[in-house]
Every structure is written in structure tokens, then in C-alpha cells.
């Protein structure tokens, strides 16, 4: 029998962390109070989530503060779990650790279901407070016991510095054990590590990244890592400084056995770099098809540097920095063969030495499981069509380094140069790193393909990937490829219009995947420079919409055909979250039909939306929230959400906000639903809930906050149906992708405190003191649905965009009177600024990369502003405009289409 509220132990109040450590602040509350529901002697567990969250007002206020980039410290034991993906898109998983040393090295095509799931293939034990369960990788093993960098250093790699100062020689490796303090500043897609020795008058930093340029997928997929080291002389006298890096030959690292052949290191160079190409020379045929057969390379972008093709000097000695150049080295498998690169410089007082090191790899042999799952894998990877080996990757990166590094750093600066809180920018963006792990692939055919989580659940599953918002905004080309090659290609049934939710790896459509993918078609159309994408694909898109509309058997605008959904079950009846999602998809179908001039189909979609909305609001709203109406024949025999409070109940309206569609659900009813989710599903400590509600997986554990998937606030018996199935366990979990979706929706509807609190709960669950900040786990590691986090950023900006129409709009939800944030468009990215000053509202659009075509700009007046005139200038030159008010927004139409580039900016004065 569940404990009554008065005997559930109170949660200790958490103290504020000292100033400068805002990102480690936990939820501040005193005692659980305001329990909903009444106690029952038997039956389903009592709902025990407190209505009153008892959040500390100062803590909530702190969520809005700009703060500083998160910095993790050795002195606080915050480095061991850090693993920032620093390889290119779809190039495997290479982690940059808390002290910069690289680890994991998931580049050998091992990810495989169920053989090699996750980043650390292990089963762990989890005590949820009531029972002890065995947890696999796909069930959250890495959440309970995160992978530790020191245990996963597959390849030998590192750096050392040599300093000669006042006759004293100091040699130190860039290893946390060699320094008084090591700090890791998290500013994805780059991170900077600083090393401190209180007795050394030098500043040493190392910045790591892989080229990452939004809208440029090709230059962002290089299988390479850049490590930039900088040593600054802080003394008043000159000093001699040397820097050395080393890297193990990674070819055939896992499979080669004694007698199979030799590892070979060969010196390579150009006028841009000096380096070592690492390969494997086989002694017999038939071995070169192994998944780890390929090459690695190590280079320094300094043609005057020294080279060791065979290096073996630990601890690192003085002579290692000065010994003679070697041309070639080899060694029998499976012994280690290590290369090293070094350079020296005399630094005057205050001078800085900078060196760029590059590590590259090339393993173009997908495993047999992947080739079995998707035929495109048989041709190898997309990067394999561009480069024959790791040496060519190095040459390309070195040749184009100025462009690649400058544009990567420009994006990092643009993203972080904002008035939004640093912690918020980090959490909403960081999950795009999933694309730089072994969770995703791009094959030689150009096709994009992904697991749900690393090595688990194949086929770029539509009902998971449709939650992800970041790829469509940062690399829209990849989403367009998915739409054309898979959703209207390998996974399409042209006779019916059904989209098979795992393409070749399934035979059924999923109703939520179908609807969500229609909305993605509309987003991809919006993120295009012109209407060619829509024109080309409209016949297929129209069929997909028609198939979805046909799932409404009784013609009431509410989907009622039993069909697979993302909770891995087939639910009967009319289900609010599926009904609403289909209504939103039909509204997107209407918008696309209008853009295509297809008036008849536009009217069909419009009628469906009107009918569905009216019936959903009348029949599926219980006065508090939206529910699941049982099937008239089946009743509640099968699993469903029924009268419970389900996390996705107004997901359709959430999606509509993401793509700037008009409302598809009544605002007040929607707000009531969101408030119910906050009231009944969000808790600052999930411990009591998961202890009493058994069967879920550990994606949030005792002492952590989160939003539970599905709760039974009115304490019904058998709330989820008569014949409960294994999927019921999902209802008791906190899955970050769903939570991000709700946070994005709350933000869009003006529930900003709640949206920030939910996002911060996820952020705190992934603090480096507890687990890897870069890995949000659901069904396995780097779960794709977590890329829904970007949607909360979109909502915070009130961003709307339609490339073919040349339309851009902002409606900031956080500090609109003084707001600045980045944005991406079809052909460029930049920054939007807004300032309320002396009765005027000033707006500025700046482009940092590419270009922006603009015909119409829309903005909501900041509270108190009354707009009567609009002045527009581009690069100081006045532009003719007209403006109109519509739905509390002002739409500014430019008489001549603007083309804004990095040399120009748009300035608007609304007064």
C-alpha cells in the first residue's frame, strides 16, 4: 500500500551554490505539499505529485539571468564524465574529455542492434527505492552509470608542453593529474579547456571542435577533430616553449591479430602542414573488409614542425621535443604504434604561441547488420565519396582551414552573443551533437539514416525523429534529403500515401509519424530558398496528407483508426494527442495547398481542421485537460491514456507554433491543458513517484526533477485500460524529448517560468558532476528525440520564417524590451536585436553568413508601445515600406525585395 503524504520523508532544502556557479543550482523547495487526489486502500498507486511545486522565487528569477558559459572544474570533480562530440556529422563518435584528451573512439562501425547498443555496452543494476532491476543500454544504463573517460581511452593520444624559464625546465602533460586546476568551458560546438599551475607564469588553453557550419552540411561532416593549443607568457621575461602532441595509429585497431600484418606510420607534409599518415599493411587477403579497416592521420598546421613516426617516450622527456625527424615506422599487430609532432618558440613577455593540431580518420566499411538493414550502407559513407583516406581528409582541412575555422568560430560567437541565459542556450542547442555521433549516418548515395539512440531501434523512425527541431533549422538540407529519399522514397507507399515509419525496417505506418512528417514537409518548405522543394514533392505530400485524413473513419475530424504510435502500441479510440497532431498536420497541408494554388485540396484540409478542432474541444476536453475517448466497441480493454494527464495531449498546437501556423486549438483550453501538465505531471523530485509507480526506465532518478509522461490525477482504478501491457512502463518515465516539446509549447504560450524550470530540470539532470552533459538518453545514448530542445529556443525568440515568401518574424518571450538572439534561414544566419527606447521600438537584422531575402518582416510591439510610423534602412539607405496590424503583430512590407548580406543590415524604427 502506498505511503500517505504525511509519512513520505520531506526533501531537504538545497542550498544556493556560490555566485558564479548558477548552472549547478538545483531546485529550491522545502517540503512536498498540496498533494492531489485522495488516498485509496487498494488498486492503482495513488497519484503523489505535489500540486504546489514550492519553487524558491529567487531561484526562478535566476533562470532569467544572462550568467556565463558553464565551466566545469577539476576541483569540483566535474570532468570524468564529460564527452563532447568533436567529430564531423555522421563520422562516428569521438569525445573530447574534460581535460581535452579524446576518448571513446566510436569510429569503427560497431554500433549494432542489439550487439553494440549505446556508447558503453553494459548492464547495470538500478534500485528505484523499491526494487532492483537490470538496466540495459537502451533502458538507461549510461544514465545510471555514465561512461567514464578514463575507462574508454581506446587510442593513445595527448599533448605535453615544455617550458624553459629562468634556467628551470618544466615538462607537463595536458592531463588533469598534472595540474592544480583544469576548467572546461562548454560552448558547443567548441569547448575550451584551461590548465592552471599556480607556480607557472603561463596561461595554457586548448580549444577543441570539428568544423561545424550551419547550412553547410558537407563542410560539417569531416571525420576530423581540430585541437588548438595556445600558450601565453604571463611573465615579464622571455621563455622557451615547446608543444608536442601524439596519436596512436588507429588502423585495424580492434580486429588485427598477431600475424595479420603491420601497422605503418608514414610522414606526410605540404606547405600547410606536417603530419603522419597511419595505415595497416595486411599480410594476407580477406582482412581488409573489417569494419575497422581504414586509416587515421595526425597533423600540425605548421610545415616547420618536427615529426616522430615512431614515438615511445613516457614520461615525456626533454629529448622528445628535439629528436630527429623520422620518415617511416612500422610494427607488428597488435602492438601500439604512436606518432608525435612537436614545435618550439621563444616567447617574449606577454607573447602567445598558437598551434593547430588535426586528427583525422577514414573507416568506410559499415557493419553487416547495417548493410542488412539499409541497402544504401553497402556503398559506404558519404565522406568516402569525397576522400579516399584520412590523409586526404587532412589535406582538405589544412587547405581550407582558414575558412572552416573562421566560420565555425563565427557561428559559435553568433550563437552565444545573445541576451538569453547561457545555460538556456547550451541546453537547447547541445543535442544537435547527436548528428556527430554513431547514431547517424550519411551514405554514399547521399541518404541520411539514423537509429533512435546509438545502435538501438533502426530506420530513422518517423514517430521519434519528428520531435527533433534542430536539424531542420541548422542543416535543413539533411531533412530535405530525408523527406525525398525516405519519406517519399524508400518508406513511401504511393498507392495509399502511407509513410512506413521505419522505411525498409518496417511494413506499417505510424499515425503520429505520418502527421509529424507532414508538418516537417511544411517546415522544410519554409526553410527553402524558393518553392522548388514543394513543387517537386507536392504530389507525394498530397497523397501523404490524404492518407492521414482517411484515418478518420467516422468523419468527425478526429483520427480513430487504430495505428502504431511512438509509445510502441496500437491505441483504440479518439486520442487527444494524435487527433490534435493530425489537425495540425491538416492545417500544414492546407498551407502547402494554398502555396501550390490547389484550392480544392486546401478547402478539404480546412474543413477537416474546422471539424476536428470543434469536436476535439467539445468531446476530448474534460474541463481541465484533453483526454483519450475510448473506442465505442473496444471500450477500455486495450492500453491507452483515457482520463489521465498525458504529456503530449496538445502536441499538435505545439507543432503549429514551431512553423507559424494559425492556432489549431482554443488558447484557453490549451493553456488549461498545459497548466494541468505542470500541476499533475511535473515534480521537483521524481523519487516518490517512481518508487510507487513501478516499471519505468531511469531517465530521471530520485532527487531529480522532471515531467512524468502520464499520470492519473483523479486516482481511477485501471486508468490505462483493462489489459495492461509492457508499454505501461513508459507512462512512469521522464523522457527529455517529450519534456522539451512541452517546454517549447509553454514558452510559446507565455508560460515562461514553467518552460525555463522544465528546461533547467533537464539541464541539471545532465550536469557534469553526475553524467555527460552532451548525452541526453532515452532508448540508448544521444537519443534523437532530444533534439526537440531547439524548439524551446525557437519559441523563446517567437521565430517564424518562410523562405519562399521572404517572410521573417520575431516575438521574443524573454526580455523583449532588450533582446538579442541568433537565427537561421534558408541561405544565411545572423542575429536579431530588439530594443525599446524612449517610446520607440528599434529592431535590427544582421547577417553573419550567407544572405537573407526579405519581403515582409513582422514583430509584436513591446508592451506599452503604440506604433504609428515605421522607418526602414538597409546599410543606412532608406527603404519604402507599408505596414499593417494583424493579430497583435505589425507586418512590414518592403516595396522592393531586400537582400541582406554580411556587408549590410536592416534597421527598423517603430514609433
Tell me about this structure.
Helices cover 24% and strands 26% of the residues. It has a domain at 800-910: Immunoglobulin-like, CATH 2.60.40.1180. Strands 3-11-12-13-14-22-18-17-16-20 form a ten-stranded antiparallel beta sheet, covered by helices on one side. The protein has a six-stranded antiparallel beta sheet with strand order 37-38-39-45-41-42, covered by helices on one side. It is globular. Residues 1-41 have low confidence and may be disordered. Strand 5 (93-96) and strand 6 (102-106) form a beta hairpin. The termini are far apart. It is α+β, with helices and mostly antiparallel strands. It is built from 20 helices and 45 strands. Residues 83-403 form the Glycosyl-hydrolase family 116 N-terminal domain. InterPro entries: 6-hairpin_glycosidase_sf, 6hp_glycosidase-like_sf, GH116_catalytic, GH116_N, Non-lysos_glucosylceramidase. It holds the Pfam family DUF608. Residues 512-789 form the Glycosyl-hydrolase family 116 catalytic region domain.
Amino acid at each position: 500500500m502506498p505511503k500517505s503524504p504525511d509519512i513520505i520523508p520531506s526533501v531537504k532544502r538545497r542550498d544556493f551554490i556560490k555566485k558564479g556557479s548558477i548552472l549547478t543550482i538545483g531546485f529550491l523547495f522545502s517540503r512536498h505539499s498540496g498533494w492531489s487526489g485522495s488516498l485509496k486502500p487498494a488498486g492503482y498507486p495513488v497519484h503523489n505529485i505535489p500540486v504546489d511545486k514550492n519553487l524558491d522565487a529567487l531561484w526562478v528569477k535566476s533562470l532569467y539571468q544572462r550568467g556565463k558559459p558553464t565551466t566545469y572544474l577539476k576541483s569540483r570533480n566535474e570532468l570524468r564524465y564529460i564527452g563532447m562530440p568533436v567529430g564531423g556529422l555522421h563520422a562516428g563518435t569521438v569525445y573530447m574529455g574534460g581535460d581535452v584528451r579524446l576518448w571513446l573512439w566510436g569510429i569503427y562501425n560497431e554500433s549494432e542492434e542489439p550487439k553494440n547498443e549505446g556508447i558503453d555496452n553494459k548492464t547495470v543494476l538500478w534500485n528505484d527505492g523499491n526494487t532492483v532491476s537490470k538496466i540495459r543500454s537502451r533502458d538507461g544504463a549510461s544514465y545510471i552509470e555514465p561512461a567514464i573517460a578514463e575507462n574508454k581511452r581506446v587510442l593513445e593520444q595527448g599533448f605535453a608542453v615544455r617550458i624553459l624559464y629562468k634556467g628551470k625546465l618544466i615538462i607537463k602533460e595536458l592531463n588533469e593529474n598534472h595540474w592544480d586546476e583544469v576548467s572546461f568551458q562548454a560552448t558547443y560546438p567548441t569547448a575550451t579547456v584551461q590548465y592552471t599551475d599556480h607556480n607557472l607564469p603561463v596561461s595554457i588553453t586548448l580549444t577543441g571542435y570539428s568544423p561545424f557550419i550551419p547550412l553547410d552540411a558537407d563542410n560539417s561532416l569531416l571525420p576530423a577533430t581540430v585541437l588548438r593549443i595556445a600558450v601565453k607568457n604571463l611573465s615579464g621575461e622571455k621563455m622557451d616553449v615547446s608543444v608536442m602532441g601524439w596519436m596512436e595509429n588507429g588502423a585495424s585497431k580492434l580486429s588485427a591479430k598477431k600475424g595479420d600484418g603491420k601497422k605503418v606510420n608514414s610522414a606526410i607534409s605540404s606547405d600547410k602542414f606536417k603530419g603522419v599518415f597511419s595505415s595497416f599493411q595486411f599480410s594476407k587477403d580477406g582482412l581488409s573488409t573489417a569494419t575497422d579497416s581504414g586509416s587515421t592521420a595526425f597533423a600540425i598546421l605548421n610545415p616547420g614542425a618536427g615529426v616522430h613516426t615512431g614515438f615511445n617516450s613516457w614520461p615525456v622527456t626533454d629529448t622528445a621535443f628535439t629528436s630527429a625527424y623520422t620518415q617511416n615506422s612500422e610494427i607488428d599487430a597488435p602492438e601500439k604504434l604512436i606518432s608525435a609532432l612537436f614545435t618550439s618558440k621563444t616567447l617574449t613577455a606577454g607573447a602567445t604561441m598558437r598551434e593547430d593540431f588535426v586528427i583525422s580518420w577514414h573507416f568506410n566499411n559499415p557493419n553487416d547488420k547495417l548493410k542488412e538493414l539499409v541497402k544504401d550502407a553497402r556503398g559506404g559513407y558519404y565522406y568516402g565519396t569525397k576522400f579516399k583516406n584520412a590523409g586526404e581528409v587532412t589535406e582538405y582541412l589544412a587547405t581550407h582551414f582558414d575558412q572552416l575555422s573562421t566560420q565555425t568560430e563565427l557561428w559559435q560567437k553568433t550563437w552565444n552573443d545573445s541576451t538569453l541565459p547561457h545555460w538556456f542556450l547550451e541546453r537547447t542547442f547541445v543535442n544537435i551533437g547527436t548528428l556527430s555521433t554513431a547514431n547517424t549516418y550519411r551514405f554514399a548515395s547521399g541518404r541520411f539514416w539514423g537509429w533512435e539512440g546509438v545502435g538501438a531501434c533502426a530506420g530513422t523512425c518517423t514517430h521519434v525523429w519528428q520531435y527533433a527541431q534542430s536539424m531542420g533549422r541548422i542543416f535543413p538540407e539533411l531533412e530535405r534529403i530525408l523527406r525525398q529519399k525516405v519519406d517519399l522514397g524508400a518508406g513511401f507507399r504511393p498507392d495509399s500515401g502511407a509513410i512506413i515509419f521505419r522505411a525498409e525496417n518496417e511494413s506499417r505506418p505510424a499515425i503520429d509519424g505520418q502527421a509529424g512528417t507532414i508538418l516537417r514537409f511544411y517546415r522544410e518548405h519554409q526553410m527553402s530558398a524558393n518553392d522548388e522543394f514543394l513543387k517537386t514533392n507536392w504530389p507525394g505530400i498530397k497523397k501523404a496528407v490524404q492518407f492521414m485524413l482517411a484515418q478518420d473513419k467516422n468523419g468527425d475530424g478526429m483520427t480513430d483508426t487504430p495505428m502504431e504510435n511512438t509509445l510502441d502500441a496500437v491505441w483504440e479510440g479518439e486520442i487527444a494527442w494524435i487527433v490534435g497532431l493530425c489537425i495540425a498536420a491538416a492545417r500544414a497541408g492546407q498551407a502547402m495547398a494554398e502555396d501550390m494554388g490547389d484550392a480544392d485540396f486546401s478547402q478539404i484540409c480546412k474543413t477537416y481542421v474546422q471539424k476536428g478542432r470543434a469536436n476535439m474541444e467539445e468531446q476530448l476536453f474534460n474541463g481541465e485537460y484533453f483526454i483519450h475517448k475510448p473506442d465505442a466497441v473496444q471500450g477500455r480493454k486495450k492500453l491507452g491514456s483515457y482520463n489521465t494527464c498525458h504529456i503530449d495531449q496538445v502536441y499538435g498546437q505545439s507543432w503549429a507554433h514551431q512553423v507559424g501556423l494559425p492556432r489549431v486549438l482554443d488558447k484557453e483550453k490549451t493553456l488549461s491543458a498545459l497548466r494541468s501538465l505542470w500541476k499533475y505531471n511535473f515534480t521537483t523530485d521524481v523519487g516518490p513517484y517512481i518508487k510507487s509507480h513501478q516499471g519505468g526506465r531511469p531517465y530521471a532518478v530520485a532527487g531529480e526533477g522532471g515531467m512524468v509522461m502520464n499520470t492519473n490525477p483523479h486516482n481511477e482504478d485501471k486508468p490505462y485500460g483493462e489489459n495492461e501491457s509492457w508499454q505501461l512502463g513508459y507512462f512512469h518515465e521522464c523522457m527529455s524529448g517529450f519534456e522539451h516539446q512541452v517546454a517549447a509549447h509553454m514558452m510559446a504560450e507565455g508560460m515562461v517560468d514553467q518552460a525555463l524550470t522544465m528546461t533547467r530540470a533537464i539541464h541539471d539532470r545532465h550536469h557534469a558532476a553526475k553524467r555527460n552533459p552532451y548525452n541526453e538518453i532515452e532508448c540508448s545514448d544521444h537519443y534523437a528525440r532530444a533534439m526537440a530542445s531547439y524548439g524551446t529556443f525557437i519559441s523563446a525568440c517567437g521565430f517564424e520564417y518562410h523562405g519562399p515568401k521572404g517572410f521573417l518574424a520575431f516575438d521574443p518571450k524573454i526580455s523583449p524590451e532588450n533582446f538579442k538572439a541568433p537565427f537561421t534561414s534558408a541561405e544565411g544566419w545572423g542575429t536579431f536585436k530588439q530594443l525599446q527606447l524612449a517610446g520607440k521600438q528599434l529592431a535590427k537584422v544582421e547577417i553573419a553568413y550567407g544572405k537573407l531575402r526579405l519581403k515582409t518582416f513582422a514583430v509584436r510591439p513591446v508592451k506599452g508601445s503604440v506604433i504609428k510610423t515605421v522607418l526602414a534602412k538597409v546599410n543606412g539607405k532608406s527603404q519604402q515600406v507599408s505596414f499593417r496590424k494583424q493579430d497583435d503583430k505589425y507586418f512590414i512590407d518592403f516595396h522592393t525585395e531586400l537582400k541582406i548580406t554580411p556587408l549590410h543590415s536592416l534597421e527598423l524604427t517603430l514609433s
